[in-house]
Amino acid sequence: xxxxWLCLFVENEIGVLAGISGLFSGKSYNLGSLTAxxxxxxxxxxxxxxLTSDDRTFEQVKKQLNRRVEVIKVVDYTDxxxxxxxxMFIKVSGCSAKDMEEIxxxxxxxxxxxxxxxxxxxxxxxxxTENYNNDLIAxxxxxxxNRIEIVRGGSVAVEALSITDR
Length: 166
Hints:
Layout: E1 2-11, H1 16-26, E2 31-38, E3 44-53, H2 55-67, E4 71-76, E5 82-93, H3 97-109, E6 113-117, E7 121-128, H4 130-143, E8 148-159
Antiparallel strand pairs: 1-3, 1-4, 2-3, 5-7, 5-8, 6-7
């Protein structure tokens, strides 16, 4: 089992995203992440998705996606040098003044942004890799157990121009 990444270019039409995600649920494949958005060509959307699978299952997924009429192109990013980021918000509630100081210190060290705060809560934004965000969650989970709320978007990715490793 290995984490895999796919980029799909699809027709920007109603129901295409539902059809593609339905393909995964119908086959009992579990998507780890799925993001979609229109490209520079308003008639085409780009979907970035991750899944964990073995080689055989992954090849089957790619073949099934390629058979769909609305899919223009399937790109396997699994072993390609890419730039990838994930958007994540974390709200920490029930904060004392000391907690606030610690959160602002962590935000400087991790190079994340404090988006909003009030007297007893802080909202931070992290636009980083999935692993980096996982490390941040682990740290905040230790420091502020049972007081964090996490909202994660899926990762977006693009092929690297000048690097050979991720």
